[in-house]
Amino acid sequence: MRLPILCFSGKETIIVYACDCSTEALERTKEVIDAAMVISVKHRFRLFCCDFSTNGFPKWLTCNSCKESIPQEQRAFLSDVKNNGNIVTELTSSTEADCCISGVDFVTLIFTLSAVPLHRMSKAIAECFSVLKPGGLLLFRDYGLYDMTMLRFEPSQKVGYREYIRSDGTHSYFFSLDSTRDLFVGAGFIEQELEYCCIKSVNRRNRKSMRRVWIHGKFQKPI
């Protein structure tokens, strides 16, 4: 997900900030970027460790204390490109990048929120809302109700309404359109797109069909 944004977005000024609560996951991601052998993207990819559902995002993502000292022509402008937790921004000032970034243009939550315990989801979404610039977009995709993964869980693994615990101890939640809408609209977002993505794929090796149900959404922070 991160590499295509950097390589094929058509905007060489885009910077991707990727966060995860696992340093191991961040290291693996860095290895993928380094192995791509695309020198032009490496300096535009920034990693940081963070569990934004508990501690929130670092303040430098939204800090604007140095904005007044930056000449008007050097300030960052909202990108006109409508591009698992990635944060995407476009900067035109290296001075600003060294101090703060004053918010981001896009946030992606791709199969991320379902791993957050249900009682912390509202905080996680509120944090995403807080780091977006006015007019910025949050792009969401995650597991939908009755996805094949949900049907495979044993009754003993169910810990709440549509919420399960995997064998490794991580959470897994399955969204409906209404529950997704309530979470994001409740945080202040404007719904632009929200739909189920139903996909049937076949494992060529064992010829088993897999029926996937995902939720796709696009939400905007009011201007």
TrEMBL record:
InterPro entries: METTL2/6/8-like (IPR026113), SAM-dependent_MTases_sf (IPR029063)
Gene Ontology biological process terms from the UniProt entry: methylation
Any one GO molecular-function label of the UniProt entry: S-adenosylmethionine-dependent methyltransferase activity
UniProt cross-references to Pfam families, sorted A to Z: Methyltransf_23
Gene3D superfamilies reported for this sequence: Vaccinia Virus protein VP39 (3.40.50.150)
Keywords noted in UniProt: Methyltransferase, Transferase
Domain of life: Eukaryota
UniProt family annotation: Belongs to the methyltransferase superfamily. METL family.
Protein name: Methyltransferase-like protein
